[in-house]
Amino acid sequence: MYHPFSVTETVKISWRILKKNISTIAVYSLLSIAIIIGLGFVLYDIVADDILKSIGGVFLLVCISFLFLGFVKLIFQLIDEEFYDFEFKDIVPKVKMLLSYIVLLVMVSTIAVIMNSAIRVLNDGILQSILGIVIFLFFQFFFLFYFPICACFIVDDESGPFESVVQSFKLIKGNFFKYLLLFLFIEAMVFIGTITRIGMVFVIPFVNIILVVAYRKLIFSHLDIDDEIAETI
Predict the structure, then answer these.
(1) Which of 93, 94, 39, 40 is CA-nearest to residue 70?
(2) What interhelical angle do 95-121 and 161-172 show, nearest 10?
(3) Beta-carbon neighbour count of residue 44 at 10 Å?
(4) Contact (CB, 8 A) for 15 and 228
């Protein structure tokens, strides 16, 4: 049966996926955290050479991107497990996915840095302050609002970095305010999680599950086909 995009249903389905696969998700999340903390410790507390630290920083970025994309692939597999079984190799990101994600991340970050640097050239004053705030909010909004959907396209459709941006804008168009409501709900969860600190261990995986489910439901609503997630989860 066709189901239009619904914030309430998206959250409910995400919660059911988390409860049903809590052990798998917990193991992957804790293992990822341990790897990142371990690499960060080696990089900043053991390595003394600045050049090695720079190389290590790039390697850490690649590892974090790899683990994040792997988690996204894992959620897709858990959603689709009603239709077929999956193996460990099915959640390993392809090189193309990793490169597309990193290129997009670096590209957007570089544009943000360039624009902020350009603003600093202006004389100190209200105009500089306003432009600084506008640019900061714009890029923060893009990273938090559109970037997760870009990541889903990169994983699910093997889209390139530029293609994924165009696809994300088209996908959210028509459901912008519903997705905005979901975004505000996610922001509230993150805020609560940061207060408790330990809560972030739960919040981060759950938030990413919500975003993957939202992506799938938006895809179904645009294609005007049966909502397989709602029918099987």
Answers:
(1) 93
(2) 80
(3) 12
(4) no
CA-CA distance, 204 to 29, in Å (whole number)?
9
The letter for the amino acid at 231 is E
Q: Which of 8-22, 33-47, 96-110, 174-188 has the lowest mean pLDDT?
A: 33-47
In this structure, what are the phi and psi dihedrals at residue 81, rounded to the nearest 5 degrees? -65, -15
Q: How far apart are CA 35 and CA 43, in angstroms?
A: 12
Q: How far apart are CA 97 and CA 154, in angstroms?
A: 6
Among 12, 5, 27, which Cα is nearest to 210's? 12
Per the structure block, which two tokens stand in for 30?
Answer: 């804790």
8 Å CB contact between 36 and 67: yes
Integer-rounded Cα Rg, in Å, for the chain is 19
Cα 100 to Cα 159: distance, rounded to the nearest angstrom? 8
Predicted confidence at residue 95, as pLDDT, reads 94
Token digits for 193? 């999680």
**Which residues, including other chains, have CB under 8 Å from residue 35's CB and lie 6 or more apart?**
63, 67
Q: Are 230 and 13 in contact, with CB atoms under 8 Å apart? A: yes
Tell the residue number behind the tokens 């049903």, with chain if given: 20
CA–CA distance, 184 with 177 (Å, rounded to integer): 10
Where does residue 75 fall: left (phi above 0), alpha (psi -120 to 50 degrees), or beta otherwise? alpha
Measured from the Cβ of residue 168, the count of other Cβ atoms closer than 10 Å reads 24
Query: Residue 229 — pLDDT band, cuts 50, 70, 90?
Result: low
- The amino acid sitting at 112 is A
pLDDT at 3: 67
- Could you tell me the end-to-end alpha-carbon distance of the chain, in angstroms, rounded to an integer? 14
